[in-house]
Amino acid sequence: MPTRGVVYVHSTPLAVCPHLEWAVARALTVPVSLQWSVQPVDPGARRAEFGWHGRPGSGAQIAGELKRWPMVRFEVTEEPSPGVDGERFMHVPGRGLFRATIGAAGDIQLGEDQLRALMAGGRGPEALAHALDRALGTAWDDELEPYRPAGDGAPATVLTLVG
């Protein structure tokens, strides 16, 4: 059963754009040509967003390919599909890749075992709050937030995986 998702390349140097297209093409096994626009938060950088359709796990493959370029800020989502949880990946230079399970509404889901481990490791309310922030990817969200509204009204590309 196919699934779908969205990739947001929030910020990348212009010279890296073709390499990111090739990286996504490797992950989806289809040719990719994206519409790049200037990133207003960082005018020397480019941004693109695109929807994709493919087999479950494609989001992880896309994120794995894109993280090879450590200077790129990006997010990849994959919607849940029958028998497969959804996923969200965020990458920020200097911070690395964050991965979380997401529900149908796109919210990060923390499992029972994960919550129990956080509670067991938390030595007081401040430590628990810090652990929850890490589990929710708050630092990644905070760093990406200025780049997100810059995409409002930007061109988007839809990619479809055949086969």
Q: What would your notes on this structure say?
A:
With 163 residues, the protein is α+β, with helices and mostly antiparallel strands. It has one domain (3-108, 148-160). The protein is 31% helix and 33% strand. Strands 1, 2, 3, 4, 5, 6, 7 and 8 form an 8-stranded mixed beta sheet that branches. Strand 5 and strand 6 form a beta hairpin. Helix 1 packs antiparallel against helix 2 (58-66). It is globular and about 50 Å long. It starts with a strand and ends with a strand. The mean pLDDT is 90.
Features:
alpha+beta, 8 strands
Q: Termini, distance in Å?
A: 11 Å
Number of strands: 8
Instruction: Estimate percent helicity.
Output: 25-40%
Q: What is the ordering of alpha helices and beta strands? A: EHEEHEEEEHHHE
Radius of gyration over C-alpha positions, nearest whole angstrom? 16 Å
Strand residue percentage:
25-35%
User: Mean pLDDT score, rounded?
Assistant: 90
User: How would a textbook summarize the main sheet?
Assistant: 8 strands, mixed
Q: How would the global form be characterised?
A: globular
Class based on secondary structure composition and strand pairing? alpha+beta
Q: Compute the number of structural domains.
A: 1
Total DSSP helices = 5
Low-confidence parts, pLDDT < 50 over ≥5 residues? none
